[in-house]
């Protein structure tokens, strides 16, 4: 008896399917029932595959945290971490409590399991409102994927941090941290044109896709420097830089 061939959806969800063939399914899952977020979900997934961090700029209620949670599900074995930052946030909230056993041996170490240093995908809301002690530690974590735990610097499994803010910081001291987010995406509320569609949305889960494995992610990171930008894109970027220089002067 002949066997039935697998459907395109089944093939896309198969772990053996090439990564490129499954990315469409991941994009569909990221944007499922989120109106006017097509560009945002593409940039989120692209940034993660390139090992970059994303800053979402927009008011509350625009699905910023939901996008980060969905991005986490796209990566096999990636742990998720989420925190709302304020000026009263403490390092323990992000990096873990101090180890009492280590203190007995005169070592200043944190219990980092379950906290940001062990996360693959993290969402930091109101990211620029944290105090300088937290921001300074985050600089190394975001840029080097390493965390100073006592006298040791440990490698972290961080894939991408999704930061959220209502406004771009004006303080000069925050610009170095702002620059760690290479991809910056404005996120607005649903437009008037799509408001009717928003009211008629019905809950439902997107078709699952086989998660991106660590090996596939590693292969994507190795190939990122081989991507060649076409001349029209290079020209557009050059014109944009000239426009920014003209505005600054």
Overview of the structural elements:
Helices cover 41% and strands 13% of the residues. The protein has 249 residues and is of the alpha/beta class. The protein has a single domain, classed as 3-Layer(aba) Sandwich (Rossmann fold). It has a five-stranded parallel β-sheet, covered by helices on one side. A two-stranded antiparallel ribbon has the order 4-5.
Q: Keywords for this structure?
A:
alpha/beta, Rossmann fold, two-stranded antiparallel sheet, disordered N terminus
Short synopsis of the structure:
This protein is an alpha/beta fold and 249 residues long.
Which CATH class? Alpha Beta
Biggest sheet statistics: 5 strands, parallel
Q: What average pLDDT do the residues reach?
A: 88
State the end-to-end CA separation.
Answer: 75 Å
**CATH fold category name:** Rossmann fold
Beta-strand residue fraction: 5-15%
CATH superfamily membership, which one?
P-loop containing nucleotide triphosphate hydrolases
Number of domains as seen in the coordinates: 1
* Helix amount: 40-55%
Number of strands: 7
Low-pLDDT stretches: 1-6
Rg estimate, integer Å: 21 Å
Structural class: alpha/beta
Second rung of CATH, namely the architecture: 3-Layer(aba) Sandwich
Q: Give the overall form.
A: globular
**Number of helical regions:** 11
H/E series = HHHEHEHHEHEEEHEHHH
| Major sheet: arrangement of strands | 2-3-6-1-7
